[in-house]
Amino acid sequence: MSNEIKIKDRNGTRSEDIQKKARGLLNNLVSSVQTLVSDITALEVNTMVVDRINASKFNAWQAYQEIYSIRDPDYFKAKGIPKEGSQAQELRKRYKSLFDQLEREYFYLLLEEGSDFYNPQDERVKRYHQNLEEAKKHQQNLVEADQENVKLAEPILPAPTPVLDDKDGNNQDDWIENFKQVQRLLENDKFVRTLRKMTELKAALDGINITSTKTDIIYAQTVMQIDGDIITRYNKELFSLSEDAKNLIINTHNQGVVSGEKQWRGTFSFLISLVQSIANLSQ
Length: 283
Known about the structure:
The protein is mainly alpha-helical. It is about 60% helix and about 10% strand. It has helices at about 1-40, 60-70, 75-80, 85-110, 125-140, 170-185, 190-205, 245-280; strands at about 40-50, 165, 170, 215-225, 230-235.
């Protein structure tokens, strides 16, 4: 008799565990769908010409390290990008903008109420507000939302690898804390989307021949909004190419737009059916 009770209890416990796991999976799925919906309201198709294409699978931790390394003083020397020359200067500026955009994304998470990273007592946030107030004294028309003002917080992104300090060497406590922060960041869907985008742009920059001014140009861009607006832009450089090259780029871009639209619509249909299924499950 007692054995039968134990078996029933055990089966009941297993059933509860399964239900809990199922609810957890459903909640994660709902959260993922909400994230996708917020990020899929527009389709953007860019067509550009690069010297070579680097094929590699996206790895968030590796991508973070690569973007973060751009702030290293020896980064451009290792890349073989000289200091002189308009093309080299423009290329350096574009690389630096990748780091700046990723840093801004993180800083917005620090400032956004309701974010998992929001903390008004964070030293970086306090430093930002203090420096912003000081900057206002010297610049009357200063716009707080200006992306450049994020730099007032000074270095923000946590280092993915130990940083040697001249004073006390490698501070293990700081490194462990940075490691935890990076891990939390790479679990944030919004930040990882930006990281993925910056990685794609970096791959394009890595394929540039720095002696050429004709590569790394976005020749055509089409943006489709969910409300039906379609915007297509052509770089004026496109019309200075030969007729064959121009037509090839335009045709390639148009094919990309058609393929992208089909995939976009298919993703929407999938999400709608997924939401309906989730709604039925929750009833």
